[in-house]
Amino acid sequence: MANKVVYTEPIDAYFGYKLGTLEYRSVRFETETLDKPNFQGNAAVNYTDREPPWTPIIEHKWFEFGKDERV
């Protein structure tokens, strides 16, 4: 018998959908370039609310390799 079990199905399936099917956000990547020097002032901001319909916004210019003046 194994000492550990790794369960990779959705958590609502594990509990037999006793509270119904949970809503999940899917992953979709979109790239947009803005002709402005700053949008959010950080490399990454995570949005955890139900709205807006995205989770993070990444500004690559804030990483060490970023040299572009645009966002």
Which key features would you list for this structure?
71 residues; little secondary structure; two-stranded antiparallel ribbon; 1 helix; 2 strands; elongated; UDP-GalPyranose_mutase_C; flavin adenine dinucleotide binding; isomerase; UDP-galactopyranose mutase activity; UDP-galactopyranose mutase
The tally of beta strands, per DSSP, is: 2
The biggest beta sheet is recorded as:
2 strands, antiparallel
Q: Please give the alpha-carbon distance between the first and last residues.
A: 53 Å
Low-confidence stretches: none
Proportion of beta-strand residues: 5-15%
The helix fraction, in percent, is under 10%
Based on helices, strands and strand pairing, what is the structural class?
A: little secondary structure
Strand order of the largest sheet: 1-2
Global shape: elongated
Q: Please, how many helices?
A: 1
Nearest-integer average pLDDT: 84
Q: Roughly how many Å is the radius of gyration?
A: 19 Å
Please provide the ordered H/E string of secondary-structure elements. Answer: HEE
